[in-house]
Design a protein that fits this description.
Blueprint: E1 2-6, E2 9-10, E3 13-14, E4 21-25, H1 27-31, H2 36-41, H3 55-75, H4 86-103, E5 108-110, E6 117-119, H5 127-141, H6 146-155, H7 163-181
Antiparallel strand pairs: 1-4, 2-3, 5-6
């Protein structure tokens, strides 16, 4: 049995600690999903021996993030906008990840003068790598809203925003908008 603290939330934020409800759940109840399809496909246990931050994860994740960001920005200027979602990358990455697991050598690469090392192929392509690559892809599939501001300044006002202010504008709006989305 695990103890869980259920916190009451009001419009003003968290309520006083005297209103917290302490309850007990079994591990199965706490991790079990109410949706049958999820219960049947997702295990409630974790296998900590599966590697997740592998060479394949970083290469495929950064590649899918960059490709989706480019494709969505490029097709965003069309009259009929074409949006490429992270599901596309999720479907494409599975066979590519398995191919990389079959082709890459098991060579360990060491960083000179440090104890750091990594393997190009730590084993079969697994679920954790696939999920992380999908998260990378989802980060790239969302639009950068500040690009609209930069485009409007160039197209309608015939102005020019230098690269550094444009990057700062893009990054600050992404960080502040993602912060608002999480609230």
């Amino acid at each position: 049995m695990h103890d869980f603290l259920i916190m009451a939330v009001s419009d003003e934020g968290l309520m006083t600690p005297s209103l917290f409800i302490k309850t007990k759940f079994s591990a199965e109840e706490a991790n079990d999903s109410p949706i049958e399809q999820v219960r049947l496909t997702v295990p409630i246990t974790d296998d900590p021996t599966l590697p997740c931050l592998t060479f394949r994860t970083w290469v495929l994740g950064i590649t899918s993030c960059a490709l989706l960001a480019f494709a969505n920005q490029f097709f965003g200027y069309r009259q009929n906008i074409l949006s490429v979602t992270s599901v596309s990358a999720q479907i494409v990455v599975l066979p590519v990840g398995r191919l990389m697991a079959a082709i890459l050598p098991n060579k360990v690469i060491r960083f000179p003068r440090t104890k750091w090392s990594f393997s190009l192929n730590p084993g079969p392509f697994n679920l954790k790598e696939h999920v992380l690559i999908t998260i990378f892809a989802n980060s790239g599939s969302n639009p950068v809203y500040a690009v609209g501001i930069i485009t409007i300044v160039k197209a309608f006002y015939h102005g020019n925003i230098d690269a550094v202010p444009a990057m700062l504008l893009s990054q600050t709006t992404q960080v502040s908008l993602s912060k608002l989305d999480s609230m």
